[in-house]
Write a structure and sequence with these properties.
Helix content: 55-70%
Largest sheet: 2 strands, antiparallel
Structural class: mainly alpha
Number of helices: 8
Number of strands: 2
Strand content: under 5%
Length: 206
């Protein structure tokens, strides 16, 4: 039977190899840069772009109407209210916080979230009932889908010329002016209902 190996020859070299840090070659990472940051051909082909001279850009229809003097600031504010309610009711998210929250702010929970989303959906439905379904469709196309007047005219007006675009533009301006009054009426109706329910709950005052 051969004797067991007692020699540690070569062990020191092995230890040194494992304990000595290896030099790592660092490879520089260069971020790829796009030569052209303009919209892709697929993006440019979508209907929410229009030509302005030699440039094809995406237009904000509400801003265009406001700059042209067709609607006032109240109508612009009402448009922002509507799209916030619409997005919150249909998609469940809302990003309108622009100021620092007060120190006594109480964070909501899943129940208050659902109630708030339901309230937004109710307001959208009440606005639709007041202005009509045709106005609701135009608000969706203009604010939610962000289509241009030309794209809206393609879907709504038989006349495909610039005259059709002017027709749709006038319709949208009228609807946005009516939207401001509709929101005021909806808020008053909801407030009156809350007061009636409160009176029924508390009963007649002594």
């Amino acid at each position: 039977m051969p004797a067991a190996l007692k020699s540690r020859a070569g062990l020191g070299e092995t230890i040194r190899q494992f304990s000595t840090p290896k030099t790592v070659r660092k490879t520089a990472f260069i971020t790829a840069r796009a030569e052209d940051n303009s919209p892709t051909p697929e993006r440019m082909a979508k209907e929410d772009y229009e030509w302005q001279g030699k440039k094809r850009i995406k237009l904000n229809t509400v801003s265009a109407l406001h700059m042209a003097g067709d609607i006032n600031g109240d109508a612009v504010t009402a448009a922002k209210w509507w799209i916030c309610d619409y997005v919150f009711a249909n998609h469940g998210y809302l990003d309108i916080l622009s100021d620092v929250l007060p120190s006594d702010y109480v964070k909501g929970d899943v129940h208050t979230f659902v109630i708030s989303r339901g309230n937004a959906a109710e307001r959208i439905g009440m606005i639709r009932d007041r202005l009509g379904f045709c106005a609701h469709v135009r608000l969706e196309m203009m604010l939610a889908k962000e289509l241009s007047f030309s794209a809206m005219a393609e879907a709504l007006v038989p006349d495909k010329s610039a005259h059709g675009r002017r027709i749709v533009s006038g319709q949208c301006a009228l609807i946005l002016e009516q939207l401001c009054g509709a929101y005021a009426g909806v808020r008053k109706e909801i407030s009156d209902r809350i007061e009636r329910n409160k009176a029924l709950l508390l009963g007649p005052s002594a």
